[in-house]
Amino acid sequence: MKLPLYLRVLLLLTLVGCGWLFWQDTPDSPDRAPPPVVAKPLEPQPEPTPAPPVATVDLFPAQTWAPPPPPRPVDTSPPKPPPLPFTVSAQWRYENQSKIIVLSGNGKQYTLCNRCSVVGRIVPGKMLDANYRLDSLTDTAVVLTYMPLKHVSTLRLDKH
């Protein structure tokens, strides 16, 4: 088998380089040994402070082929007012005048009438408390409006 000239030259250079490295890699002679080093005693080192915990990143988190759960439906219904906090405590008529009604709720009592001379009365159009307005007062019903939501509620009197 005949090798081309360039391969023979590369093979020769490789052999020469390996031989040169072989002859250069000899152990040091004792006369060229480094002088011995005298070690001084070690001083006690302060205890190292523990390193703060390193946050680890999970490179391979658990995965699944299951589809993600569907998003929760958003409640788009209008807000509902709280239940009516008032109950009828008393109702009466005095000498063929309009009906007078006493409601109790929220720890207070409210006297409602259309036209009367009772001290502290509430007539239609006035507020019972911060949230409820008396809209109308008839012989059979009291109509109240929950002002934050403008929701009208009717309190029936014929049941009481």
UniProtKB/TrEMBL annotation:
Protein name: Uncharacterized protein
Region (Disordered): 31-82
Keywords: Membrane, Transmembrane, Transmembrane helix
The organism of origin for this protein: Pseudomonas poae
Spans traversing the lipid bilayer: 5-23
Compositional bias per record (Pro residues), positions renumbered to this chain: 32-53, 66-82
